[in-house]
Write a structure and sequence with these properties.
It is a single chain. This protein has 273 residues and is an alpha/beta fold. Helices cover 33% and strands 26% of the residues. It folds into two domains: 71-134, Ubiquitin-like (UB roll), CATH 3.10.20.310; 137-269, Rossmann fold. The chain has seven helices and twelve strands. The chain has a five-stranded mixed beta sheet with strand order 8-9-10-11-12, with helices on one face. Strands 6-5-4-7 form a four-stranded mixed beta sheet. Strands 1-3-2 form a three-stranded mixed beta sheet, covered by helices on one side. A hairpin with a 4-residue loop joins strand 5 (146-151) and strand 6 (156-160). It is elongated and about 100 Å long. It starts with a helix and ends with a strand.
Length: 273
């Protein structure tokens, strides 16, 4: 009797363990819900029409005169450099702003010897804006009857009329020195041009009219007053700062101010004959 109950319980346990759970099937309502999520043919046509219209409008803006460039605005450049930039960018006039290759225009402007840097922006509907960082001249290089503006790095910016721009110090080149606009002065003039660039930042109370270089030592020649001996071309900014501080205390007949050792500036007067 006991064995029969155990056998019956075992059969019930086996049937319970092998029971099948039916997976719920979606009804017609679920199919209707899914259908509502799929865009209709009409919606697809509207979207395609909008995309096509946008593409056509973009093509029209590029191909027509809607955004045609009628002005190149140059910012940050002196008049002479502004005219140069306008000349090299005139081919963009009449073209659509959307078709202008800004990087190509920037490279073209930067190639000008008088330009140190440039950036281009579009100002809709009809203006191309070119922002320019012009090269900063520090001296006029002279060779016989020719003259050029040069920068603190010795770069030759442009040729000028001899005798013009007298506010700039003069550097006298030997006869055989090769000079090319966009190129550089001979390397031997690099210390002098760097010193003259530093002069523009110093507060020397006299105009520098030239610089001499002898045996590797630099001397600034002033329009009025003593010359300033800088010595070797190191610590030039410090030496010029010391010269600017000492200059007001010099004697009226001082022949030179030597700041080659900036911690010990030395001045000397002219000797009476």
């Amino acid at each position: 009797m006991v064995g029969g109950r155990a056998e019956a319980g075992s059969r019930r346990h086996t049937r319970a363990a092998s029971a099948v759970v039916p997976f719920p099937r979606g009804g017609a309502g679920d199919r209707h819900e899914l259908a509502r999520l799929v865009p209709s043919g009409r919606s697809l046509l509207i979207v395609l029409a909008l995309v096509a219209g946008t593409l056509v409008a973009a093509w029209g803006a590029r191909a027509t005169s809607v955004f045609a460039v009628d002005r190149v605005q140059v910012l940050g450049a002196p008049p002479a450099v502004e005219r140069q930039v306008e000349r090299v960018t005139k081919d963009v006039l009449g073209r659509s702003l959307l078709n202008v290759d800004a990087r190509l225009v920037e490279d073209t402007v930067r190639a000008l010897p008088s330009v140190a840097g440039a950036s281009v922006d579009r100002s809709f509907p009809h203006t191309l804006v070119v922002r320019v960082q012009a090269e900063k001249p520090v001296a006029v290089a002279r060779r016989r009857d020719s003259a050029w503006l040069v920068t603190g790095t010795g770069k030759v910016i442009r040729e000028i009329e001899p005798g013009s721009l007298r506010r700039f110090p003069r550097l006298w080149l030997p006869k055989g020195a090769g000079v090319r606009v966009g190129g550089s002065l001979p390397a031997s003039f690099a210390p002098a041009t760097r010193a003259l660039a530093a002069v523009q930042e110093a507060r020397i109370p006299r105009r520098v009219k030239g610089v001499r270089s002898s045996s590797g030592e630099l001397t600034l020649v002033l329009k009025r007053g003593p010359e300033i001996r800088l010595g070797d071309p190191t610590d030039v900014r410090l030496k010029l700062a010391v010269a600017a501080q000492v200059f007001p205390f010099l004697a009226r007949d001082a022949a030179y101010l030597d700041v080659s050792v900036p911690e010990r500036p030395v001045s000397s007067r002219y000797l009476n004959s």
